[in-house]
Amino acid sequence: MTSRPLHALLLSATISLPLAGDASAAGPACLQGVNLSGAEFGEGRGTYGKDYIYPSAATVDYFAGKGMNAARLPFKWERLQPRLRKGFDANELKRLREAVALMRGRGMSVVLDPHNYARYNGEAIGSDAVPVAAFADFWQRLAKEFSGDRAVLFGLMNEPYEMPAPQWLEAANGAIAAIRKAGAKNLILVPGTQWTGAHSWRAGIEGGSNAEVMSGVSDPLDHYAYEFHQYLDEDFSGTHGDCPKSAEAAAAIADVSVWLRERGKKGFLGEFGVPASRECRDGLAALLGALEKNGDAWIGWTYWAAGDWWPASEALNIQPTPEGDRPQLATLSQAMARTKGQAGCAAQNPGVPGDSNLRLTIP
After folding, report:
1. DSSP state of 303
2. Catalytic choice (159, 248, 292, 314)
3. 40 vs 52: CA distance, rounded Å
4. What is the pLDDT of residues 252-272, one digit of tens each?
5. Side-chain-facing half-sphere of 120: CA atoms under 13 Å
6. CA 339 to chain centre
């Protein structure tokens, strides 16, 4: 069972820049956590408890107990809003709100993640079937529901793909404008297209690269960060059992760190994950090391993935087994231990310019 598509057509940009040197303001990532997956499972709207599930209290408690202070919460747009530009399904909204409250009650910040790949019922945002206005309407409604808690982050969309960057930029800017019109001042996470891969951020695609086009993000509050995903396998998709591209993945983190600094922006690594082999765990350590080395450019990360319904056979899964922790968790814990108690989060925490009261709440 997996909620990520095969990325067979993923463009693999060659990383030409070397790893960046020590950043002058490097520090720890503020948010360190995991994707708690399950609410995006299943086809269509499905049936709750049969086709999809939200994270249990036991799962949330486990990861909070491991010191994680953030969770990315995937869910399906169609379930929450069964008809475009109409009200939310009351039962699904209740489930979403309860899941957020559970995580917040354990001291975790929450990234809301409509896990739809810039589609609604299979139709792309920006098409006649799903106009940008419908996506903006969705986010205006969702923003009103969660605007009261600044520790809830708005991840605009999971992994837009097979759409030109200008088309996605228009959709992203439309959603941002709607969020702000709703009065919400929460931090917004903005992905690029092409599955928002760090390694392909500068890749030449139709309409221009993410690096070129996504500089055009427009937020009246200037209170957003860019979301990247990065895997270590042969096509950077996270769907294979080895990690031959570990060096390239770490280099990609350094490369987009340079891009972020040049624009005075921050990044968030919303997805990354590896199988449990020693080779892959070494690659994971190198990736986390690149984030730490370039900590001035990043607000945090969430590992992919965990959740109550992940099968034991899922290679990237870090949901605990009856025997205990999975091996990848030790590598994540080591990275968190290195930065525990270090200064830097306040400096990295992107608040609204001119208003110190509008910073993201870090547990």
Report:
1. E
2. 159
3. 7
4. 999 999 999 999 999 999 999
5. 22
6. 21
CB 193 within 8 A of CB 163: yes
Cα 176 from chain centroid (whole Å): 16
What tokens were used for 179?
Answer: 């969020």
Residue 328: its H or E element: helix 327-339
Low-confidence ranges of the chain (pLDDT < 70): 1-29, 341-363
In whole angstroms, what separates CA 122 from the centre of its chain?
21
Catalytic residue among 92, 227, 271, 292: 271
- The torsion region of residue 183 among left (phi > 0), alpha (psi -120 to 50) and beta comes to left
pLDDT at 350: 54
**pLDDT for the residue 224:** 98
DSSP bridge partners of 36: 306
Burial 98-118 (b: 16+ CB within 10 A, else e): ebbebbbebebbbbbbbbbbb
pTM of this prediction? 0.91
Other C-beta atoms lying within 10 Å of the C-beta of residue 311:
9
Residue 339: phi, psi to the nearest 5?
A: -105, -5
Measure CA of the first residue to CA of the last residue in the chain; give whole Å. 32
CA distances from 222 to 90, 215, 353 (A): 32, 12, 7
What pLDDT was estimated at residue 340?
Answer: 75
Structure tokens at 147: 């605007």
The predicted structure's pLDDT at residue 351: 54
Rg value, the chain, Cα: 19
Cα(309)–Cα(307) distance, rounded to whole angstroms? 6
Residue keyed to tokens 């991840």: 155
271 in catalytic set: yes
Total Cβ atoms within 10 A of residue 88? 17
Q: In whole angstroms, what is the distance from residue 234 CA to residue 83 CA?
A: 39
Is the CB of residue 232 less than 8 Å from the CB of residue 242? no
Told to judge if 292 belongs to the known catalytic residues of this protein, a careful annotator would answer no
Cβ within 8 Å of residue 292, ≥6 positions away: 26, 28, 29, 335, 338, 339
